[in-house]
Predict the structure.
Amino acid sequence: MKKAIIISCLIVIFITVFSASGVLESQDLDTLYAMEEFRIGVQAFNRFSFNEAILSFERALSFRPGEALILDWLGRAYFRSGFEETALRQWQASAAGYGYTSGSGLLIASRIEAVRNARNPGSSIGAIGLDGLRYVESGRFPSHSDELVFYSQPTSVLAQGDGSAWVVAYGSNEIIRIDVNGLIRERRRGPINGFDRPYDIVRSPEGRLYLSEFRGSRVSVLSSSGDWQYYIGSRGQGPGQFVGPQNLTVDEDGYLYVVDFGNRRVSKFDPSGTFILSFGARSEIFQGFRSPTGIAARNGRIYVADNLARQIHIFDGNGSYLGILIQEGLESPESLRFLDDGTLLVADANRILHIDPRTAIVRELGVLGNPSRVRLTGAELDRNGNVLAADFITGEVTVMTRMEDMASGLFVQIERIITDNFPVVNIEVQVQDRLRRPIVGLDARNFVLTEQGQTAAEQNLLGAAFLSDHTDVAILMERSSRTLGLREEMVIAAQDISAAATRVVSMISAGEQPGRESLNPPAGSTPTRQLEEAARGQAINYSPRWRFDLGLRLAATDLLPGEKKRAVVFVGAGATEGAAGSLGEMAYEQYSLTELAAYLVNNNIVFYAVIAGSGSAGGDLRFLAEQTGGQVMPLYRSEGIGPVIRDLVNLPNGSYSLSFRSMLPTDFGRAYLPLEVEVYLMDRSGRDGSGYFPPLE
């Protein structure tokens, strides 16, 4: 700080002396002033002081109007502040200044396109958005190299939260975990006697894995990391026995359903592995299974595909037949997997299908080769939105990506550059797809850093947010007249939130003038007591003119320097029946709802709303939760709010931290040093260019 003041004073003296002697022209003076303001703006941006950065960049432009580099940075500051329309205008002017065909112009044009795509209806972070999309092959997980065989005859795929996937290798009697780059990270071959033709794998709500063994006529129970624990069932035709078990599913209550191919039935087991019942035999209302294959369970309904009949049937949890979901249009259905939105992903011969159980509408997402040479026995949507398809005949897992994503590539943003240990420089990079959904599972081999076209020295991947098990939460308390009578409920909410999060960064009281409550216990008090007092707040601060917008901005800002897995948890009274809104007359006095949503999304902050009392959530709260991947919930729901807050740690996050050693000359800290990051993932790529000022010397 002292160095900056000294340099600023020297610049002023330099300008005064030399301008008086006529050495400097007016244009040179403007350049010096603009450079100093630009430096201040860049440094403020990297401290998360976006408002300060905007003011500095605006002042810099007053000395150098139309300067493309300053316009680019001004757009970045507006974007991170949630003012996307203004950011887009600055970037358009910057791209025009650079020239749209130049390298910098193309980068900015790509950024503009990505931001506009993500602002389209239905493209929120949590949306799968399969309607109308087409998937094409983007890569393969190779099964061999020359004469070296890695695995053979894959039959099923199970996606993991870190972007990797378990692949069941029927031919090589194992399960393997493959990362996003197609590298095998783990192998599991079962107990001493090994797996005997494993076929399908699913995960229970508690995290354990179930693996069917076709020739072994049993189901292996594995730990979440793939270690064998015990068997369910044995060979035979009796209750709880199998002849060639294939596909599996687990319902919301943890009950396991096994397709017993040889006995042409489905068997149900409780979470401990105890047999309950079997169903699927011929009856007056059901023709009986001819060749049962794929199975999926949700909301008390069990969906079972019949390969030979080319149909999908519906049963309830007790095995009662409910009717046919799909009667025509299928070729050879194999696996069924539910997606997060309640629709089905289906492997059908050489096709990947998307089926909505509510309407029975079938959409073809993609096709792989000729049906005589391709047999897809399993398909799964991975954490990055790709379809992983197990092809039994070719013996490999194919990665299928949205055609639009293949064309537009990855959306890469250099979010922060830290020069405290210069010449070692740390950077934070956000990697997303074209709809700004996070890309997880990357490692050092996916990143290339360059300085002025030269590969940066000593590049290292320091960390990836998707691997972190720490979360930061800021609690936002509604201080309205309605919540004055709900102070004890707000205490309960604060206690539940604090117990579920790794750290509560701050608690914001959203009154007429939102402010932070103290969470540091005074002498003689305890943290628990202090949390209770902070949650109740002062009665004098409750007002009908409380400010949701200012409170939310303050809470979100407190999260910026901390963990990348972070959330604002709003606790309020909700809307009363017949009320137009739930957030008061001053809710959007300074910031609009869309600007608040953009501020959260552009800084990767999730929004949760907890409704105390008898109110209900208004559309604005639901909008914020939907846009950020959060949730709205009543305080007194049966399972409590804790599980939802704890699940924040499992949400995907595309933030990566890297370092390198700069080799560029610094001009005693006055030089602006450019930096470019390129990210590669199979046949997709993306890049971003930025820059920084080293410490003053």
In short: Confidence is low (pLDDT under 50) at residues 10-24, 121-128. The CA atoms of residues 218 and 233 lie 5 Å apart. The longest helix spans residues 26-46.
